[in-house]
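Ticket #4471: structure export looks truncated?
Reporter: QA, pipeline team
Priority: medium

Steps to reproduce: submit the single chain below to the structure queue and open the exported record.
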Amino acid sequence: MDIKAFAFDLDGTLVDSIADLARAANAARADMALAPLAQATVASYVGDGASSLVARTLADSHAAEYTGTALQKEAMALFDRHYKQGLSIDTTFYPQVQMTLSRLHELGFPLAIVTNKPERYTLPLLRELGVSERFEVVVAGDTLTEKKPSAMPLLHVAQALNISPEEMLMVGDSKNDVLAAHAAGCPVVAVSYGYGSNLDDLGADRVIHHFADLLEFVD
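Actual output as written to the record:
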């Protein structure tokens, strides 16, 4: 691969945010007189954006979809309030992430975020974690008219960085990351430690178990 830039998913790839997501989801459920969900259950509902997460945690079903019912809107408002109050209480970088991002930056590689997390959470979280200036482009779940698994976010980043999609490596933990990369024509690496499952069956160019393994593509 002739890699000239990197695009990263956020939750489950760069940061472990499930404790804060689960706290907010369960606080919203408590406000609605519903029993709390296990953290692992909430983790299984992550990946398709906040509205999907709220619909799934409200119904406690992966099949649930956000259709804008009155109950879902109430749950969304509650989740929004609770999550904004604690974006980074327990959210931490996965091992080797900060060191690897610093190394890639030192080597001159442009870095981007491509997440399905809405901008109202993504941008403040990056600031609170002290890494917002690391990324030249940030595409959140509502930045464009389409989100992953659409190719649009990755094509947007490639255009902004003035490179071809084939020269940008997408790094993520879920099927949406792999599907988006395939649709855009980007090479893609999946991390094994995130929230995704059955990664070996998704068709990533490579599955890595340690974030620093990305340096093998450039050093």
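Status: closed, not a bug. The export was complete when the record was re-opened. Leaving a note from the reviewer for reference: Strands lie at 5-8, 15-16, 92-93, 111-114, 137-139, 168-172, 188-191, 206-208.
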